Amino acid sequence: MTSPSSIRSATTVSTSPPSRRMVSLRASQLNGCGFCVDAHAKDLAAAGEPAVRVNLVAALVYLVAMINAANRLLVITHTKGGSYQAGTFDAN
Fold first, then answer.
1. Which of 28, 53, 81, 82 is deepest in the core (most CB within 10 A)?
2. What's the DSSP call for residue 88?
3. Are strands 83-85 and 88-90 parallel, antiparallel or unpaired?
4. pLDDT (tens digit per residue) in 11-63
């Protein structure tokens, strides 16, 4: 788990306060801490950050998971000689 102090030290060098808040939100998502995610999202909203930007941070998690799943499917298809068509997988 990433500690809040390590996040602060990593982001204080040259980032703006809104960027630091976004980094804190993302770190909380990666750590799986729902309480912290909620707190950082509310902090961003109170600071005037548009809801779209806050929600896109969460969407990024989903997008990365979908890309990883697609890449695994491609590896399986190519290494086992299977075929993938329209939602079906045949591993031969």
1. 28
2. E
3. antiparallel
4. 555 567 778 888 888 888 888 888 998 999 999 999 998 988 888 887 776 67
CA 35 vs CA 18, 28, 46, 50, 85: distances in Å:
20, 9, 17, 20, 41
Pairwise CA distance, residues 41 & 4, whole Å:
15
- pLDDT of 86 > 70? The answer is no
The DSSP bridge partners found for residue 89 are 84
Tokens read off for 9:
């030290």
Q: Is the separation of the CB atoms in 45 and 18 below 8 Å?
A: no
Which residues partner with 84 through β-bridges? 89
Q: Global pTM?
A: 0.52
